[in-house]
Amino acid sequence: MKAKQLWFTKPYTIEIREQDVEPLKHGEVFVRSICSAISAGTEQLVYRGQLPAGLDLDSDIVSLTNNDGNYPLQYGYATVGVIEQVASKENEMLIGKNVFAFYPHTSHFNIKLDQLIFLPEDIKPESAVFLANMETAVNLAMDGNPRIGESVIIAGQGVVGLLLSGILSQFPIANLYALDHIEKRRSTSKLFGVKNSYDSRSGQDTDNLKQIMEKNYPGGGCDLIYEVSGSPEALNLAIELCGYTGRIVVGSWYGTKSADIQLGGKFHRNRVQIISSQVSTIASDLTGRWDKARRFQTTWEMIRKLHPERLISHRIPFESALDAYQLLDKSPHVTLQTLLIHQ
Protein backbone atom coordinates (compact mmCIF):
# COMPACT_ATOMS: atom_id res chain seq x y z
CA MET A 1 0.00 0.00 0.00
CA LYS A 2 1.23 3.49 -0.87
CA ALA A 3 0.28 6.66 0.94
CA LYS A 4 0.11 10.13 -0.56
CA GLN A 5 1.84 12.52 1.83
CA LEU A 6 1.98 16.31 1.88
CA TRP A 7 5.52 17.68 2.19
CA PHE A 8 6.67 21.27 2.65
CA THR A 9 9.90 21.36 0.61
CA LYS A 10 10.82 25.06 0.82
CA PRO A 11 9.00 28.34 1.45
CA TYR A 12 5.80 28.58 -0.62
CA THR A 13 6.35 25.12 -2.12
CA ILE A 14 4.66 21.81 -1.32
CA GLU A 15 4.72 18.37 -2.91
CA ILE A 16 2.42 15.37 -2.78
CA ARG A 17 4.74 12.37 -2.47
CA GLU A 18 3.90 8.69 -2.69
CA GLN A 19 5.49 6.58 0.02
CA ASP A 20 5.16 2.90 0.87
CA VAL A 21 3.28 2.21 4.09
CA GLU A 22 5.26 -0.23 6.22
CA PRO A 23 3.67 -3.46 7.50
CA LEU A 24 1.71 -3.03 10.70
CA LYS A 25 3.59 -3.56 13.96
CA HIS A 26 2.13 -4.85 17.20
CA GLY A 27 -0.26 -2.32 18.71
CA GLU A 28 -0.70 -0.39 15.44
CA VAL A 29 -3.68 0.12 13.14
CA PHE A 30 -3.91 1.28 9.54
CA VAL A 31 -6.01 4.40 8.99
CA ARG A 32 -7.46 5.82 5.78
CA SER A 33 -7.88 9.59 6.04
CA ILE A 34 -11.29 11.16 5.44
CA CYS A 35 -10.40 14.83 5.91
CA SER A 36 -7.85 17.03 7.61
CA ALA A 37 -7.99 20.64 8.73
CA ILE A 38 -5.39 23.22 7.75
CA SER A 39 -4.33 25.51 10.58
CA ALA A 40 -4.35 28.93 8.93
CA GLY A 41 -2.02 30.27 11.62
CA THR A 42 0.66 27.69 12.37
CA GLU A 43 0.72 26.05 8.94
CA GLN A 44 1.15 29.41 7.24
CA LEU A 45 4.34 29.84 9.29
CA VAL A 46 5.49 26.48 7.89
CA TYR A 47 4.40 27.36 4.35
CA ARG A 48 6.09 30.78 4.43
CA GLY A 49 9.31 29.63 6.10
CA GLN A 50 8.69 31.60 9.29
CA LEU A 51 9.49 28.86 11.81
CA PRO A 52 12.15 29.52 14.45
CA ALA A 53 15.24 27.43 13.71
CA GLY A 54 16.00 24.42 15.90
CA LEU A 55 12.67 24.37 17.75
CA ASP A 56 10.61 21.17 17.79
CA LEU A 57 7.29 21.88 16.09
CA ASP A 58 5.50 20.10 18.92
CA SER A 59 7.32 17.78 21.31
CA ASP A 60 4.00 16.57 22.74
CA ILE A 61 2.68 15.23 19.42
CA VAL A 62 4.42 11.94 18.61
CA SER A 63 4.21 12.38 14.85
CA LEU A 64 5.98 15.76 15.11
CA THR A 65 8.63 14.81 17.67
CA ASN A 66 12.19 15.57 16.54
CA ASN A 67 10.85 17.70 13.69
CA ASP A 68 13.00 20.81 14.00
CA GLY A 69 11.26 22.80 11.27
CA ASN A 70 13.92 22.32 8.60
CA TYR A 71 12.75 21.52 5.07
CA PRO A 72 11.62 19.13 3.77
CA LEU A 73 9.06 18.40 6.45
CA GLN A 74 5.55 17.14 7.04
CA TYR A 75 3.09 19.02 9.19
CA GLY A 76 -0.52 19.04 10.29
CA TYR A 77 -2.28 17.98 13.48
CA ALA A 78 -5.97 17.51 12.74
CA THR A 79 -6.77 14.38 10.72
CA VAL A 80 -9.95 12.33 10.86
CA GLY A 81 -10.00 8.88 9.31
CA VAL A 82 -11.34 5.36 9.53
CA ILE A 83 -9.51 2.24 10.75
CA GLU A 84 -9.21 -0.26 7.89
CA GLN A 85 -6.68 -2.79 9.21
CA VAL A 86 -5.39 -3.92 12.60
CA ALA A 87 -2.23 -5.76 13.61
CA SER A 88 -3.91 -8.35 15.83
CA LYS A 89 -7.20 -10.26 15.82
CA GLU A 90 -8.07 -8.98 19.27
CA ASN A 91 -8.58 -5.52 17.74
CA GLU A 92 -10.66 -6.57 14.73
CA MET A 93 -13.77 -5.01 16.29
CA LEU A 94 -12.11 -1.61 15.72
CA ILE A 95 -12.21 -1.91 11.92
CA GLY A 96 -14.60 0.70 10.54
CA LYS A 97 -14.31 2.99 13.57
CA ASN A 98 -13.80 6.71 12.91
CA VAL A 99 -10.83 8.25 14.71
CA PHE A 100 -9.05 11.56 15.20
CA ALA A 101 -5.26 11.78 15.08
CA PHE A 102 -2.78 14.57 15.69
CA TYR A 103 -1.10 13.59 12.44
CA PRO A 104 0.30 15.37 9.34
CA HIS A 105 -1.70 15.56 6.12
CA THR A 106 -1.60 12.18 4.38
CA SER A 107 -3.97 9.75 2.68
CA HIS A 108 -3.10 6.69 4.81
CA PHE A 109 -0.95 6.00 7.86
CA ASN A 110 -0.03 3.47 10.52
CA ILE A 111 -0.38 4.61 14.09
CA LYS A 112 -0.38 3.16 17.60
CA LEU A 113 -3.80 2.77 19.17
CA ASP A 114 -2.88 4.91 22.16
CA GLN A 115 -2.25 7.86 19.82
CA LEU A 116 -5.81 7.82 18.49
CA ILE A 117 -8.98 9.45 19.79
CA PHE A 118 -12.17 7.61 18.89
CA LEU A 119 -15.03 9.75 17.68
CA PRO A 120 -18.24 9.65 19.73
CA GLU A 121 -21.01 8.00 17.73
CA ASP A 122 -23.00 11.24 17.47
CA ILE A 123 -20.17 13.37 16.04
CA LYS A 124 -19.45 13.36 12.31
CA PRO A 125 -15.95 13.57 10.78
CA GLU A 126 -16.30 17.18 9.59
CA SER A 127 -17.22 18.23 13.12
CA ALA A 128 -14.54 16.10 14.77
CA VAL A 129 -11.80 17.61 12.61
CA PHE A 130 -12.15 20.71 14.82
CA LEU A 131 -11.06 18.77 17.92
CA ALA A 132 -7.55 20.26 18.08
CA ASN A 133 -8.68 23.87 17.65
CA MET A 134 -11.60 23.42 20.02
CA GLU A 135 -9.26 21.96 22.64
CA THR A 136 -7.08 25.04 22.22
CA ALA A 137 -10.11 27.29 22.71
CA VAL A 138 -11.16 25.35 25.82
CA ASN A 139 -7.63 25.66 27.22
CA LEU A 140 -7.62 29.41 26.53
CA ALA A 141 -10.88 29.81 28.41
CA MET A 142 -9.45 27.88 31.35
CA ASP A 143 -6.21 29.89 31.40
CA GLY A 144 -8.03 33.23 31.26
CA ASN A 145 -10.42 32.28 34.07
CA PRO A 146 -13.21 34.68 33.04
CA ARG A 147 -15.25 35.85 36.01
CA ILE A 148 -18.86 36.82 36.38
CA GLY A 149 -19.52 40.38 35.24
CA GLU A 150 -16.17 40.89 33.50
CA SER A 151 -15.64 42.53 30.14
CA VAL A 152 -13.73 40.41 27.62
CA ILE A 153 -12.07 41.21 24.29
CA ILE A 154 -10.82 38.61 21.83
CA ALA A 155 -8.19 39.98 19.45
CA GLY A 156 -8.29 37.70 16.42
CA GLN A 157 -11.30 35.93 14.97
CA GLY A 158 -9.70 33.13 13.05
CA VAL A 159 -11.01 29.65 13.77
CA VAL A 160 -9.59 29.48 17.31
CA GLY A 161 -10.82 32.99 18.09
CA LEU A 162 -14.31 32.20 16.81
CA LEU A 163 -14.49 28.96 18.80
CA LEU A 164 -13.29 30.82 21.89
CA SER A 165 -16.02 33.41 21.26
CA GLY A 166 -18.60 30.63 21.21
CA ILE A 167 -17.32 29.19 24.47
CA LEU A 168 -17.12 32.53 26.30
CA SER A 169 -20.59 33.55 25.11
CA GLN A 170 -21.88 30.87 27.49
CA PHE A 171 -20.20 32.52 30.51
CA PRO A 172 -22.03 35.10 32.69
CA ILE A 173 -19.62 37.86 31.64
CA ALA A 174 -20.81 41.44 31.14
CA ASN A 175 -19.83 41.90 27.50
CA LEU A 176 -17.86 40.10 24.80
CA TYR A 177 -16.08 42.12 22.11
CA ALA A 178 -13.93 41.03 19.18
CA LEU A 179 -11.21 42.55 16.99
CA ASP A 180 -10.21 41.43 13.51
CA HIS A 181 -9.26 43.18 10.29
CA ILE A 182 -11.22 40.74 8.08
CA GLU A 183 -14.91 41.57 7.64
CA LYS A 184 -15.97 37.94 7.07
CA ARG A 185 -14.56 36.97 10.45
CA ARG A 186 -16.15 39.94 12.19
CA SER A 187 -19.59 39.14 10.81
CA THR A 188 -19.19 35.45 11.73
CA SER A 189 -18.18 36.36 15.29
CA LYS A 190 -21.67 37.69 15.96
CA LEU A 191 -23.05 34.25 15.13
CA PHE A 192 -20.84 32.92 17.93
CA GLY A 193 -22.08 35.33 20.58
CA VAL A 194 -19.89 38.42 20.22
CA LYS A 195 -21.75 41.63 21.10
CA ASN A 196 -19.74 44.00 18.90
CA SER A 197 -16.85 43.33 16.55
CA TYR A 198 -14.31 45.97 15.50
CA ASP A 199 -11.82 46.37 12.67
CA SER A 200 -8.38 46.05 14.27
CA ARG A 201 -6.81 48.10 11.46
CA SER A 202 -9.27 50.97 11.69
CA GLY A 203 -8.11 53.79 13.91
CA GLN A 204 -11.70 54.96 14.33
CA ASP A 205 -12.88 51.49 15.36
CA THR A 206 -10.10 50.96 17.88
CA ASP A 207 -10.56 54.48 19.30
CA ASN A 208 -14.27 53.80 19.72
CA LEU A 209 -13.52 50.59 21.59
CA LYS A 210 -11.00 52.38 23.83
CA GLN A 211 -13.62 55.00 24.69
CA ILE A 212 -16.16 52.31 25.54
CA MET A 213 -13.65 50.60 27.82
CA GLU A 214 -12.58 53.82 29.56
CA LYS A 215 -16.12 55.08 30.02
CA ASN A 216 -17.95 51.96 31.10
CA TYR A 217 -15.53 49.76 33.01
CA PRO A 218 -13.81 50.38 36.37
CA GLY A 219 -10.06 50.45 36.02
CA GLY A 220 -10.23 52.31 32.71
CA GLY A 221 -10.24 49.29 30.47
CA CYS A 222 -11.06 45.66 29.83
CA ASP A 223 -10.77 42.96 32.49
CA LEU A 224 -9.60 40.15 30.21
CA ILE A 225 -8.14 40.19 26.71
CA TYR A 226 -7.20 37.21 24.55
CA GLU A 227 -4.55 37.72 21.86
CA VAL A 228 -5.09 35.04 19.20
CA SER A 229 -4.49 37.09 16.06
CA GLY A 230 -1.03 35.71 15.28
CA SER A 231 0.30 39.28 15.10
CA PRO A 232 2.69 40.28 17.90
CA GLU A 233 1.91 43.95 17.19
CA ALA A 234 -1.58 43.29 18.54
CA LEU A 235 -0.12 43.14 22.05
CA ASN A 236 0.33 46.92 22.06
CA LEU A 237 -3.35 47.45 21.30
CA ALA A 238 -4.25 44.87 23.95
CA ILE A 239 -2.20 46.81 26.52
CA GLU A 240 -4.00 50.04 25.56
CA LEU A 241 -7.39 48.37 25.99
CA CYS A 242 -6.55 46.61 29.25
CA GLY A 243 -7.73 47.98 32.57
CA TYR A 244 -6.00 48.15 35.94
CA THR A 245 -4.72 44.67 36.96
CA GLY A 246 -6.30 43.28 33.81
CA ARG A 247 -5.14 40.06 32.15
CA ILE A 248 -3.87 39.50 28.62
CA VAL A 249 -3.79 35.82 27.61
CA VAL A 250 -1.52 35.16 24.62
CA GLY A 251 -2.56 32.09 22.66
CA SER A 252 -0.80 32.99 19.40
CA TRP A 253 2.39 31.33 18.25
CA TYR A 254 4.40 33.96 16.40
CA GLY A 255 7.20 31.81 15.01
CA THR A 256 10.01 34.16 13.92
CA LYS A 257 7.74 37.23 13.92
CA SER A 258 8.41 39.88 16.55
CA ALA A 259 7.40 43.45 17.35
CA ASP A 260 8.36 46.33 19.63
CA ILE A 261 6.10 46.00 22.67
CA GLN A 262 5.45 49.15 24.69
CA LEU A 263 6.00 48.07 28.29
CA GLY A 264 6.21 51.55 29.74
CA GLY A 265 3.26 53.81 30.42
CA LYS A 266 -0.05 52.02 30.76
CA PHE A 267 1.42 48.52 31.05
CA HIS A 268 3.66 49.54 33.96
CA ARG A 269 1.15 51.76 35.77
CA ASN A 270 -1.77 49.37 35.45
CA ARG A 271 -0.06 46.20 36.67
CA VAL A 272 -1.18 44.41 33.52
CA GLN A 273 -0.62 40.65 33.53
CA ILE A 274 0.50 38.86 30.36
CA ILE A 275 -0.20 35.11 30.48
CA SER A 276 1.10 32.52 28.05
CA SER A 277 -1.41 29.83 27.07
CA GLN A 278 -0.30 26.64 25.32
CA VAL A 279 -2.56 23.66 24.77
CA SER A 280 0.09 20.93 25.12
CA THR A 281 -0.06 21.26 28.90
CA ILE A 282 -2.58 22.13 31.59
CA ALA A 283 -2.02 25.02 33.99
CA SER A 284 -0.40 23.82 37.21
CA ASP A 285 -3.19 25.11 39.45
CA LEU A 286 -5.65 22.83 37.62
CA THR A 287 -3.67 19.59 37.37
CA GLY A 288 -4.98 18.27 40.69
CA ARG A 289 -8.47 18.00 39.16
CA TRP A 290 -7.95 18.20 35.40
CA ASP A 291 -6.11 15.95 32.99
CA LYS A 292 -6.19 15.75 29.19
CA ALA A 293 -8.91 13.09 29.23
CA ARG A 294 -11.25 15.37 31.17
CA ARG A 295 -10.38 18.31 28.90
CA PHE A 296 -11.18 16.19 25.82
CA GLN A 297 -14.58 15.33 27.32
CA THR A 298 -15.27 19.04 27.67
CA THR A 299 -14.00 19.65 24.14
CA TRP A 300 -16.40 17.11 22.65
CA GLU A 301 -19.23 18.76 24.54
CA MET A 302 -18.30 22.15 23.09
CA ILE A 303 -18.28 20.62 19.60
CA ARG A 304 -21.81 19.34 20.22
CA LYS A 305 -22.98 22.76 21.42
CA LEU A 306 -21.24 25.05 18.93
CA HIS A 307 -21.45 23.03 15.69
CA PRO A 308 -18.04 24.20 14.40
CA GLU A 309 -18.65 22.65 10.98
CA ARG A 310 -20.44 25.95 10.28
CA LEU A 311 -16.98 27.45 9.88
CA ILE A 312 -15.97 25.28 6.93
CA SER A 313 -15.61 27.68 4.01
CA HIS A 314 -13.60 25.52 1.58
CA ARG A 315 -13.31 21.79 0.91
CA ILE A 316 -10.33 21.17 -1.37
CA PRO A 317 -9.21 17.78 -2.73
CA PHE A 318 -6.00 16.58 -1.10
CA GLU A 319 -4.25 16.37 -4.48
CA SER A 320 -4.91 20.13 -4.93
CA ALA A 321 -3.44 21.08 -1.56
CA LEU A 322 -1.20 23.77 -3.07
CA ASP A 323 -4.36 25.64 -4.08
CA ALA A 324 -5.46 25.61 -0.44
CA TYR A 325 -2.22 27.10 0.87
CA GLN A 326 -2.10 29.72 -1.86
CA LEU A 327 -5.69 30.67 -1.05
CA LEU A 328 -4.88 31.10 2.63
CA ASP A 329 -1.74 33.07 1.82
CA LYS A 330 -3.19 35.40 -0.81
CA SER A 331 -6.90 35.61 0.05
CA PRO A 332 -7.41 35.05 3.78
CA HIS A 333 -10.40 37.42 3.65
CA VAL A 334 -12.53 34.80 1.88
CA THR A 335 -11.69 31.82 4.10
CA LEU A 336 -12.60 30.53 7.52
CA GLN A 337 -11.76 26.83 7.89
CA THR A 338 -10.23 25.04 4.90
CA LEU A 339 -10.37 21.24 4.79
CA LEU A 340 -8.36 18.84 2.67
CA ILE A 341 -10.71 16.11 1.49
CA HIS A 342 -9.52 12.59 0.70
CA GLN A 343 -11.46 10.79 -2.02
Number of strands: 15
CATH topology of the largest domain: Quinone Oxidoreductase, Chain A, domain 1
Mean pLDDT equals 93
Query: How are helices and strands ordered from N to C?
Result: EEEHEEEEHHEHEHEHEHEHEHEHE
Strand fraction: 25-35%
Number of alpha- plus pi-helical segments:
10
Question: What does the model show?
Answer:
The chain is of the alpha/beta class and 343 residues long. The chain folds into 2 domains: 2-129 and 308-341, Quinone Oxidoreductase, Chain A, domain 1 (Alpha-Beta Complex); 133-276, Rossmann fold (3-Layer(aba) Sandwich). It contains 10 helices and 15 strands. Strands 3, 4, 5, 6, 7, 14 and 15 form a 7-stranded mixed beta sheet that branches. Strands 10-9-8-11-12-13 form a 6-stranded parallel beta sheet, sandwiched between helices. A two-stranded antiparallel sheet has the order 1-2. A hairpin with a 2-residue loop joins β1 (2-10) and β2. α3 crosses α9 (292-306). It is globular and about 65 Å long. The model has no long low-confidence stretch (mean pLDDT 93).
